[in-house]
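Bit of a strange request maybe. I'm writing a small parser for structure token strings and I need a real example to test against, not something I typed by hand. Could someone generate the tokens for this chain?
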Amino acid sequence: MVLAIDMGNTNIVIGCIDDDKVYFEERLATDLKKTELEYVVLIKTVLELYGIDSSQISGAIISSVVPQLVNIIREAVEKLIDITPMVVGPGVKTGLNIHMDEPRRVGSDLIVDAVAAIKEYGAPVMIIDMGTATTISIVDDKGSYAGGVILPGIRVSVDALASRTAQLPRISLEAPGHVIGKNTLDCMKSGVVYGNASCIDGMIDRMADEIGIPLASKENPHGIKVVATGGLSRVIVPECRHDIIVDHALLLKGLKIIYDKNVE
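Reply from user aminoacidic:
Good idea to test on real output. This should exercise your parser:
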């Protein structure tokens, strides 16, 4: 069993996974003020919640877009399970060809997502990750990372809207009953949920057109499949008009694949 940790700007995704299944996937708040010991306690608590003893864990791997936390989490894992975790970055084999201007600057979370999507769903594939930022990446029919887009995250947009306007409140993220709202809250919810769903639908079409590969369908099963992950995919994807696969454990699966590639 491998302990897999992905550090994002808002949440730290943590889970245990082996060749057969994902045992759990949980989120901790990303907090730069927390010490190594505090993260030890948090991770230990999550493991105990799922009845997992540290002796059951044979390896660990970390990906991160928060450089300031890498050493803290690495040391926390070492202290907790007496294993030095692998860190996704330069020198770590991923098996992914990256066709970008600066391949080394591509976020490790995007690479991990792409590796998992290729293994789970095949190429070509488009990956939507809804976190602090919403990213849409595309892997071409040769299995190479072809690029993507970065959009303001949904919660970032909502927080900015509430903080920069005098009369608009903070809202919960849920789809209202109608696109056309009849009160301020429903108008905001519609804009956030249906607006983001429409944005994603539109970007999927534009990216598929630009790469010159049609989207997968019953008539064309070899086209581009679309996979979504991230906490807010639960809210937005059901309102999209495209056929999108939701895989909340995509990051954990990718981390396990990369871990296996580097311990063979």
